[in-house]
Amino acid sequence: MADGDGAAASGKLTEHSASGAEKGLPRRGKSLSGRTLNTAQIPLVASHPEVYEPCDDSFALVDALLSDKAQLLTLQPRLCMEVGCGSGYVITSLAIMLRQLASGTQYLATDINKHAAETTQATLEAHGVHADVIVTDIVSGLEKHLAGMVDVVVINPPYVPTPEEEIRCKGIASSWAGGLNGRQVIDRILPAVREILSERGWLYMVALEDNDPLDICHLMSEMGYASRVVLKRCTEEESLFVLKFWRDPHTGTSASPKSPKSESWFSQLPFKSLWHKGS
Amino acid sequence: MRLLTHNMLASNVRGATTGYPLKLEAAKWVTKEVDLNADFIRGLLPKIDWRALVAATRALGLPELLPEEQPPEEEIFAEGAADVEGSAIRRIHHALLEIHVQEGSLVCPDTSRCFPIDKGIPNMMLHEDEV
To answer: Which GO terms describe its biological process (chain B) (predicted)?
Structure first.
């Protein structure tokens, strides 16, 4: 099942931590050849006119998960969940990536768009993996009984800055319309996700420069979460970050937000330099 | 939707008190075998609402699958139990992870609001005036 996995994963790591990612290489072409063992295969990803197709942001999130694959395998997550699963490319890739685990890991995925949920189901089936897919707003209906149970949450949120009213649009618009600074949906998602994350849980989330990722990290830090930039990537249109959050006893309201640890961490964030490079 | 997910789902419709457990009405369901992992079940079981799980199996017409009361852990996780046909752990594993409800509905116990399950996907979306 996992033949050659290690080699493929490490090859991939070198590739995107070096310059390849920044040069905007054709992601799709690569996924046909190099990714078959580790991620969902694009030709097998289902599609629907009202569902967001895997794009640079989806690939960035999956690449970030790939770069953390060894840690994810060590974590042996019991429950993994994607909020806003769209085409299903990300949750399917995660399930494939962790398939070698004998820990009985289970997967859940939600989307507000019924067509996306069905598309995700078809993508999962095409790859021989399973997740229970639910049509709901973020995690509505799950927040109480799933509280503190999910070990890995992955989110490619609707992060595009748009007029506020676009957030309420149905269908494919719900995959990208993020309101003011692209933060309005993100700011609803984060508190809900903190409810369902387990003590040892990890959250991976895509964010855009416009979303002020530093501010997101700071807000999460006030709630007791440490953070790290797993991947940064400038495409022609946007500069993308994949942020990772986890509970840290040394972070949060009890400790000073300006504790040496968080300060040194924030000062390392490459947002500014990257922004200049990209623009 | 597996019964594991049913066990985690509640109705958030306006007027619901707990919205839990959702009454399962299954028109079509299938079973798919998956490997049993005792450690997974052991970690999960304290989080499972046993009565909701039993109610769901009975709603599927499987009154014999699980007993009314949860068996003691010593019995569930007894050495070698996973290899014994019909053991408690095998039944629990089957109930939680191998039954897929394809078509049917989930009914809010407080308001009777019905959430459809279509192609295996429960739709928990509420209209604006229901939130």
So the answer is: maturation of LSU-rRNA; maturation of SSU-rRNA; positive regulation of rRNA processing
Mutate to test the interface with B, among A80, A124, A132 (most CBs of B within 10 A): A132
- CA proximity to B89, closest of B74, B99, B102, B103: B74
What is the pLDDT at residue A180?
A: 87
Q: Which of A14-23, A27-36, B66-75 has the highest mean pLDDT?
A: B66-75
What count of other Cβ atoms lies within 10 Å of the Cβ of residue B98? 16
pLDDT of A169 reads 80
Residue A258: band (very low, low, confident or very high) from pLDDT cuts 50, 70, 90:
very low
For B125, the closest of A106, A130, A135 (CB atoms) is: A135
Report percent pLDDT > 90 for chain B: 99
Please check whether residue A64 is in contact with residue A242, taking contact to mean a CB–CB distance below 8 angstroms. yes
- Nearest chain B residue to A137 by CA distance is B125
Contact B125 A141 (CB under 8 A): no
Q: In chain B, what are the domains?
A: 3-124 (2.20.25.10)
For residue A101, the chain B residue with the least C-alpha distance is B37
- The answer to whether the CB atoms of A137 and B37 lie below 8 A apart is no
Partners of A245 in beta bridges: A203, A227
Is the distance from CB of A107 to CB of A94 less than 8 angstroms? yes
Do the chains contact at A135 and B8, CB–CB below 8 Å? no
> B99 near B3, Cβ under 8 Å?
yes
As a whole number, mean pLDDT of residues A151-171 equals 90
Residue A42 has pLDDT above 70, yes or no: yes
Any idea where the domains of chain A sit in the sequence? 5-278
pLDDT tens for A197-235 read 999 999 999 999 999 999 999 999 999 999 999 999 998
Cβ of A132 and B125 within 8 Å?
no
Amino acid at the residue A252: G
B39 shares contact with chain A (CB less than 8 Å): yes
If one compares A21 and A206, the residue with the highest pLDDT of the two is A206
Domain A5-278 has CATH 3.40.50.150: yes
**Cβ distance of A104 and B37 shorter than 8 Å:** yes
Give the Cα separation of A109 and A131 in Å (integer).
7
Which of B108, B117, B124, B131 is most worth mutating to test chain A (most A CB atoms within 10 A of its CB)?
A: B124
